[in-house]
Amino acid sequence: MPYMHTAPEPRSGQDHDEPLVRALELTRVYRRGPQEIRALDGVSLDIHAGEFVALVGSSGSGKSTLLNLLAGLDTPTSGRILVSGRPLSTQSPEALAHYRAHHVGMVFQAFNLVSHRTALQNVELAMYFNDTPREERRPRAEAMLARLGLGERLHHLPADLSGGEQQRLAMARALVKQPSLLLADEPTGNLDQANAHDIATLLTELNRDGLTVVLVTHDVALAERFARRMERIHYGRLLPPGEVPSP
User: Fold this and answer.
1) Which fold has domain 50-73+92-238?
2) Type and span of the H or E element at 95
3) Which of these, 59, 81, 78, 56, lies nearest to 68 by C-alpha position?
């Protein structure tokens, strides 16, 4: 079954070659007492519809901060994010909630599943906030779980699933909304090599079906093997192509 997604409607007069996501000179500064921490320091990045981009960096490099900004979960200290030509950081809380509910799927290293809900209920919950009619939620959840190899695990709690199955469940929850953009933050970080390979392969298949994927990872080999484009981030800055961060 091909992946089906919905993209934000283009603005009147918008260039259809315009990136799906454009980050312009993003900075994100945190303060801890008198100390200033520049998690991002002037990051500019274009992501076009249908790309599979890997953001590669060590812990503390700013890659997860960048992902949270692209998801509308945080706002930049300075700079702008445009999604389909629309500024993201100036949107109202209601508009940002709509953006996350309808257009963004997120997958995390820690799975972030609701422990007392079954696999089926976890996926159904993702559609509760995006206006999916109630009668459609269960059939769509069942179909997505079956597609990701969890058709026999519908009524299992997360604790009864393996690590790889929990990550597939988390992906089913993100994908059932039919987002235009999937943001995956270290989705293989808690998995063994075989399950990590399976999840990365699944991301590749989804991308081939048309889904735009941004993968955050510290694993250079995984990024080189599966992503179509790799961007290295180091101390809050994107490195020029071919440059490797110093130890």
Assistant:
1) Rossmann fold (3.40.50)
2) helix 93-103
3) 81
Residues 6+ positions from 42 with CB-CB distance below 8 Å: 25, 26, 27, 79, 237
Helix (H, G, I), strand (E, B) or coil at 136: helix
Q: What is the tens place of the pLDDT at every residue in 74-106?
A: 999 999 999 999 999 888 999 999 999 999 999
- Give 37-82 as a DSSP string: EEEEEEEEEEE-TT-EEEEE--TTSSHHHHHHHHTTSS--SEEEEE
What are the beta bridge partners of residue 184? 107, 215
pTM given for the model: 0.89
pLDDT tens by residue, 134-192:
999 999 999 999 999 999 999 999 999 999 999 999 999 999 999 999 999 999 988 99
